[in-house]
Amino acid sequence: MGRDAVLIPDNPDLNEEVLRNLDAFIKDKEAFAENTWRQLMKATRLWCHWCIAKGRSYLPVDADYLRDYLLELHDNGLAPATISNYAAMLNLLHRQAGLIPAGDSQKVKRVLKKISRTSIIKGETVGQAIPFRIADLNRVDDAWKASDRLKETRNLAFLFVAYNTLLRVSNIAHLKVKDLAFDHDGSVMLNVGYTKTLMDGKGITKALSPRASARVLKWLHVSGLLDHPDAYLFGKVYRTNKASVTTDKPLTLHPLENIFAEAWAVVHNDKVGTKNKGRYATWTGHSARVGAAQDMTESGYSLAQIMHEGTWKAPKTVLGYTRNLEAKKSVMMDLVG
């Protein structure tokens, strides 16, 4: 079980059925997205550490203890959305164990509402990734397109794919060379097996622009990956300026997300912005999705078109990304003059 062993508590009061349920849950973890499992493990470990420090059992989760824990997280400055996510992950753990989730308790629901309301009244806003927009991509392109450094060639191709497709970093990480289709005119198509919101087994196809296609093709040629269809499209680049040919395990998300931070340094000369919710001081993994949504809004594309490009099922997220731009379209601005 390795790192997942934290899910099996050392509590003699738990019956054998609960322990069997947890063991089966771990064995079937592939039923969940990697990010969901990662969030579950993080939330569970933090809860375990808190309970151990307090001398309390961490499973079953006691509603009164959970209430105290959530309030302490809020007092320590954690965002309400993150706190709600932690509570949801502990609820998931309970359901899979065959236990009644502590989060179903009115006292837990009430404290989550309290945390959210007090945060809003204090003027706190939901954190959002700094948008990586087309003007930013153009500046990075100017800086890296003639580079002899293989890493910068890879990074540039990655940024073009991220912006052009609006794919999440986790999806880009799993792209393989064989997922690309090449047309005689030099254009490239990406066959994406699944996304967070599309799990029907049919996948989607993304067309790359001529410039994005050129950057990806250059990366494939200079890295030698074109001869390795089973290799992941974006793998590690060694200090010797050679690309790793990896077929068994994709690059982890951290080095891929760090590409955005390196691009930020090119455009902003290492000057970081003011942190939003303690996180967003440079471009991050979601920045291309936010920036592309804003650029499409400014260019007059409809909400339906933007949602289609980003595979969003509901408009709420897109409207959150573009709220400042949409505010400028207010009819009252024309009326008041």
From TrEMBL:
Signal peptide extent: none
PROSITE patterns hit by this protein: CB, TYR_RECOMBINASE
Core-binding (CB) domain sequence ranges: 16-98
Organism: Xenorhabdus bovienii
Keywords: DNA integration, DNA recombination, DNA-binding
MF terms (GO), sorted A to Z: DNA binding
Stated name of the protein: Tyrosine-type recombinase/integrase
Domain of life of the source: Bacteria
Keyword DNA-binding: yes
Cited PANTHER family: P CELL-TYPE AGGLUTINATION PROTEIN MAP4-LIKE-RELATED, PHAGE_INTEGRASE DOMAIN-CONTAINING PROTEIN
